[in-house]
Amino acid sequence: MSIGSARWHRRAEPADWTDAMTSALPTEAGPRFRRMGAHFATGVTVVTSVADDVPVGTTVNAFATVSLDPPMLLVSLRNGSRLLSCVECSGVFAVTVLAADQQLLAKWFASRTRPTGAASFAGIPARPAPVTGCLLLAEGVAYFDCRVSAVYSGGDHTIVLGEVAACDELWPREPLIFSGSGFATVGLPASPPLRN
Ligand SMILES: Cc1cc2nc3c(=O)[nH]c(=O)nc-3n(C[C@H](O)[C@H](O)[C@H](O)COP(=O)(O)OP(=O)(O)OC[C@H]3O[C@@H](n4cnc5c(N)ncnc54)[C@H](O)[C@@H]3O)c2cc1C
Fold first, then answer.
1. The domain containing residue 89 runs over which residues?
2. For a tag on the chain, would you pick the N or C end, based on fewer CB atoms within 10 A?
3. How far is the CA of 193 from the centre of ligand 1 (A)?
4. Could you give the count of Cα atoms lying within 13 Å of 90 in the half-sphere of its Cβ?
5. Other C-beta atoms within 10 Å of 189: how many?
6. Is residue 28 part of a domain?
7. Which residues surround ligand 1 with Cβ inside 6 Å?
8. What is the pTM of this model?
9. Backbone angles phi, psi at 165, to 5 degrees
């Protein structure tokens, strides 16, 4: 699949915000910052993109929904990673939300020894997302198919804002949780959905 040139643009934060962030936390506070961050439980996703017909997928927990109208979400990707360069190149990505029984997939798409390109998806049920064609992990819980609308510098990561072109459930069941630097499951029945 070939995808046209990206039509989003990179926005830089004001210099004083970046300075404030870097000066507030000395370098030696990094490990403490990581430990404190680990107290915040998240879901786990695999973010995929494609450039020149070569698919890439990476485990990502820095995911959040951002806007309802228009529907937007964000992912934060490490600078210099294959996934980020692919997303910046193609201007598209897809997010598959993983289920509690997909821990091995989360580890696989985070592993440093997995092969690159299509080989990293070998044996994993996957299908193209309806709008962008980025691969979805077919046995995930739900997916979001996105076009990049903006990218923001975020220290050693880049925050990618995506406009959701399509989303749906795949196989709804209990989600995988990342908490305390390890995988977990919700374990307890969820409270009834909140309504406003
Ligand atoms: C629960 C969890 C949550 C995570 N959340 C995030 C997150 O929110 N954001 C984030 O950025 N990361 C996150 N990660 C880390 C991320 O999943 C891994 O770092 C992943 O390996 C990155 O893949 P990549 O291909 O994008 O990165 P790369 O660093 O490009 O590649 C990963 C590995 O492949 C090797 N490699 C790179 N290019 C090639 C090549 N051309 N040929 C052969 N080998 C190559 C690299 O040496 C490296 O070892 C998370 C990991 C876990 C377990």
1. 38-179
2. C
3. 34
4. 27
5. 6
6. no
7. 44, 58-62, 76-78, 81-83, 106, 110, 112, 116, 178
8. 0.86
9. -90, -25
